[in-house]
Design brief:
The chain is of the alpha+beta class and 151 residues long. The chain has helices at residues 30-42, 80-84, 100-115, 126-134, 136-140; strands at residues 7-10, 16-22, 51-55, 59-63, 76-79, 144-147.
């Protein structure tokens, strides 16, 4: 894996498609996420990829052009609990605090399920529409998910 990212997802032919950074910051906004991503890119803390996902306990922010250096707002934003609720314990209510490690493991499990097609896409799901509309699903389908351990 490259440059110590939390999760990297590769296409079946081995090209880096998605870089994921998980943080425990609470009460984020698209503007905050744009600045955070811009700082990561400016300091070369993340490798170039087609997609970049910034995962916070409250929201997931996805950029289609992961290498664009601008302070661009995310292309997609979705509540974390809507995506990962089943992977974070399946409670009816979102917990007050989600630890970075728990978020990272839940994301890795979800991305593994998506990439391996264990999770059937549903047209009525906002999460699945995001995956398809962004092109991310096609980019990672049958690919590999790599998780950085021991950070």
């Amino acid at each position: 894996m490259n440059q110590g990212v939390d999760i990297a997802v590769y296409s079946p032919d081995g090209r880096l498609q998605l870089v994921v950074e998980a943080k425990s910051q609470q009460q984020t906004s698209p503007e905050w996420a744009a600045r955070f991503r811009r700082n990561l890119l400016a300091h070369q803390a993340i490798p170039p990829a087609n997609y970049f996902l910034l995962a916070m306990p409250d929201h997931l922010y996805l950029w289609k052009n992961g290498v664009n250096q601008s302070e661009a707002r995310p292309d997609y934003e979705i509540p974390t609990w809507e995506v990962l609720g089943d992977y974070l314990g399946g409670r009816s209510e979102q917990p007050r605090r989600v630890w970075e490690e728990s978020l990272q493991l839940a994301l890795a499990s979800w991305l593994n399920d998506v990439a391996s097609s264990k999770r059937e896409l549903r047209p009525d799901s906002g999460v699945d529409r995001l995956l398809v509309d962004s092109g991310l699903y096609e980019g990672i389908k049958s690919g590999e998910v790599h998780v950085e351990s021991g950070r």
